[in-house]
Amino acid sequence: MTITSTQTATSVLHLSGNQADSADQYNLADFHFAPIRESIVAREMVKRYMEDMLEYAESDVVIVGAGSAGLSCAWELSKNPNLKIAIIEQSVSPGGGAWLGGQLFSAMVVRKPAHKFLDEVEVPYEDCGDYVVIKHAALFTSTVLSKVLQRPNVKLFNATAVEDLIVRNGTVAGVVTNWALVALNHDTQSCMDPNVIEAKVVVSSCGHDGPMGATGVKRLQSIGLVKKLPGMSCLDMNAAEDKVVEYTREVVPGMIVTGMEVAELDGAPRMGPTFGAMFISGQKAAHCALKALGLPHKLN
């Protein structure tokens, strides 16, 4: 955005960006929005959301959890324009724990060679030898999120919780969903039945255990498809990141586990405030999904 040379900085702004050659201007001293009826706003939102629900009721891949691993998985999968990818996120704000670097500190540390993913999504960083530092974790998260959501074959359903899985003959075939506020308050109201999304592959990236974390593998254990769930071990950064990537896989037919949920399943150490394994685990999960779909992939 630049100020035109013939007008004052407080009155007229020249808009640039996708239409850099446009001469459109507006006057902040006498600004008026185009008229609209309130009912039009409601219809535009409802129509598009319902069209998305109809379109993604059958998806190729459903990703549960829009943290750093889930978003990295969605980015990698969305490179195939023929795949239909739905992301389910229980929070209003996607991003999981990747809005801060750790505690209340803002910088994000990424160990090499995971910086190659940052190069791909064009997130700037400071090179510190064996690792790089992004000046604010929110810069990474907002960049990846915005790029994923621009892909025409991706739909994010946020403020939506996965309450259960669709399982047929030992194969995961989709997810059972509800509004997150409903899912969190089932004990305070009469029953409200859920909705469903069928999927050829489900990628569970719910994160480490907590009120809404590790829900995918916990459900697999409760129905006997996973025998042991040792839980995440104590922090060891050097062991943790390698193990999270190594153990990212299709756990049962139709369901892949990625990110810190892997640590819950396999007893791997927690990694703390270093994030490279989240990106690479998400990318590996995408290629596990491609393999499960019978499509070209980069797994050995």
Binned strand content:
15-25%
Give Rg in angstroms.
21 Å
Outline: globular
Instruction: Tell me how many strands there are.
Output: 13
Q: Which class of secondary structure composition applies to the elements?
A: alpha/beta
Spell out the helices and strands N to C: EEHEHEEHEEHEEEHEHHEEHH
For the termini, the CA-CA separation is 47 Å
Query: Can you summarize the main beta sheet?
Result: 8 strands, mixed
**Mean pLDDT metric:** 92
Give the low-pLDDT segments.
1-15
Total DSSP helices = 9
Oligomer: single chain
What would you note in describing this structure?
This protein is α/β, with parallel strands linked by helices. It is built from 9 helices and 13 strands. The chain has helices at 38-55, 68-77, 115-121, 137-150, 180-183, 215-222, 237-247, 260-266, 276-292, and strands at residues 12-14, 25-27, 58-64, 85-89, 108-111, 126-127, 131-134, 154-158, 160-168, 171-179, 195-204, 249-252, 255-257. β12 (249-252) and β13 form a beta hairpin. The chain starts with 11 loop residues before the first strand and ends in an 8-residue tail after the last helix. Residues 1-15 have low confidence and may be disordered.
Which terms summarize this structure?
three-stranded antiparallel β-sheet; 300 residues; alpha/beta; disordered N terminus; globular; single chain; 9 helices
SSE arrangement:
Layout (H helix, E strand, L loop, with lengths): L11 E3 L10 E3 L10 H18 L2 E7 L3 H10 L7 E5 L18 E4 L3 H7 L4 E2 L3 E4 L2 H14 L3 E5 L1 E9 L2 E9 H4 L11 E10 L10 H8 L14 H11 L1 E4 L2 E3 L2 H7 L9 H17 L8
Parallel strand pairs: 3-4, 3-11, 4-8, 11-13
Antiparallel strand pairs: 1-2, 5-7, 6-7, 9-10, 10-11, 12-13
